[in-house]
Amino acid sequence: MLPEQHLIALKEWAVTVQALAQGRQILLLRKGGIREPGKDFRVDHTEFLLYPTYEHQKEDLLKDVFQSALRSLLAEPRPERQITFSHWAKVEEVIEVSQQKKVDDLSPHHIWTNAYAQSRLHWKPKLPLAVMLLRVYQMERPVDVPALPEYRGCTSWIEVLDRVPLGGLRPVLSEQEFRRRVDEIKNCLGMALSTA
Question: Mean pLDDT over residues 133-147, rounded?
């Protein structure tokens, strides 16, 4: 059963949130943020709001075909003191990857350049890269909340002070299409496919 409200959010580039919201990708690659506790990323929550951020996004970190999406996003007016939540996600699975070849094999499944994906792998090389497979849902209507000072900074997780109503959640991808994408990703990583 899906929740009706939520207060935990995961910060991610706005262009990546858009790709997730449009069903263009179902994964995130994470290793840590500059100000994470212990500087390591942990999947502390398996359900969360997608918090679009605008810092650190650069065209040259995206594949050519997705660079115009970033330009369009940056050209849109947006209130500086407000966050708009429109999508909620549930972690289907977390896969740890330590080999560059496997990161390279994920290339068809995300919007970033291979060089950027590799940089995430090579930062703190003794730690594996977390590949988060996400089932993404569109909220019934977007919800605006104040962008409080405590939400700023290079951390992944935030707790929104007021619970955000989700309304009726609608999956971005059908169950069949989502399972097909999961199987494609697992296949390229040399893993067993789902039986669902």
Answer: 95
